[in-house]
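In this section we walk through a basic example: taking a raw amino acid sequence and producing a predicted 3D structure, encoded as discrete structure tokens. The instruction is simple. Fold the sequence below.
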Amino acid sequence: MKILVVEDEIKTGDYLRQGLTEAGFVVDLARDGLDGLHLAQTDAYDLAILDVMLPGIDGWAVLQGIRKAGKDMPVLFLTARDQVQDRVHGLELGADDYMVKPFAFAELLARVRIHLRRGSKAKESEYLRIADLELDLMRRRVTRSGKRIDLTAKEFALLELLLRRQGEVLPRSLIASQVWDMNFDSDSNVIEVAMRRLRAKVDDGFEPKLIRTIRGMGYVMEIAE
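The resulting token sequence is shown next.
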């Protein structure tokens, strides 16, 4: 599942991105309101976490822009503004939740998962499937032919990316940015190693093989014809 974080405090933004990524989510981080609104309007997210006090435009305006664009993703405000009127204002604008800084990450993560469970889009896409491989997004479980497969958080995120974009050849640069949140280093074999380990778990001993390497281009998940 994909989450948008709009947070201008560098340490807080990096902390949120790291924690949510380790929890198995794909995370985009925007440092100001204008960039956050642009991402929210042009990409598909399952949930957004917004600060209120942002450069460019504030979180209130970001939320209004999201709703005007017809986006019904759950939105959670995470802000130092702790007055009752601020909470009321955020909820009246269409936010689904409001948390005050400082915060406990465990509570934030619990709220994120609750809203994802409740979201209509999340319910429609609770499972991702191809052939006899099934990924349960909410329970973070993977099975093939009914057999449970244990994955690390990175392997789960990698498999989710492949499943969401099955049939599409994904270049290493895209995988690096989406799963590892880093620029692609042609001298690094981290992606090849992770893909080899993922294949060993979801393809070895099963038919048909689902993960293919397209030499010089990247990787694709599909049922070979």
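Looking at the output, two observations stand out. The chain has a mean pLDDT of 89. Residues 105-118 form the longest helix (14 residues). In the next section we compare this with other chains.
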